[in-house]
Specification:
177 residues, mainly alpha, de novo design (two linked rop proteins), 0% strand
Length: 177
């Protein structure tokens, strides 16, 4: 009788520990995604300021500025990943355009905004990496035995990694014409 009771208690404790582990991993993935979202929002807030400062110096480069402005939205993970990479590419183009304007490069407001955006881009890259690491740990946790049994019962599904297309991985070509 005591052996049976001990086995039942051990089984219940195991279920509780597995459940709590899966919940923690799920929450970590949600938090990691919100960090990406937070950094994208920060970049979204900084871009209009950079654009306004740059517009005064580079009126004829408005196409690049308009591209950057237009690409700051998305609803799904894939759309956000795609738009985020496109914004990064166009920001690189914008900074290259600034190289052709010595007065703009020397403008302290522009320099501060450029530093902020560069820092934000680094934070976005880190947040993406943290998210993918969290997803990897979560996906592993729901696939290993005996977690996979409980994950299936509790309907935990694999999460999608933050990824970019092959096109977005190509080198950026900057044309100053």
């Amino acid at each position: 009788m005591y052996i049976l009771l001990g086995i039942i208690v051990l089984l219940i404790l195991t279920i509780i520990l597995i459940y709590n582990h899966l919940v923690k991993m799920d929450i970590r993935c949600k938090n990691a995604w919100s960090q990406i979202d937070n950094q994208l929002k920060r970049r979204h807030d900084l871009i209009p300021n950079l654009i306004e400062v740059t517009k005064g110096y580079a009126k004829h480069e408005s196409e690049t500025l308009e591209k950057v402005t237009a690409m700051r939205t998305g609803n799904t993970l894939s759309e956000i990943a795609e738009n985020s990479e496109l914004v990064s590419k166009n920001l690189k183009d914008l900074f290259m355009v600034a190289e052709g304007y010595p007065d703009l490069k020397a403008n302290q407001l522009f320099l501060n905004l450029q530093i902020e955006l560069t820092g934000t881009e680094d934070k976005i890259a880190f947040a993406r990496q943290f998210y993918n690491d969290s997803v990897q740990q979560y996906n592993t946790a729901i696939q290993v035995f005996p977690n996979n049994i409980f994950a299936n019962i509790l309907k935990y599904k694999e999460r999608e990694y933050f990824k970019v297309t092959d096109e977005e991985k190509k080198n950026v070509e900057v044309k100053l014409s």
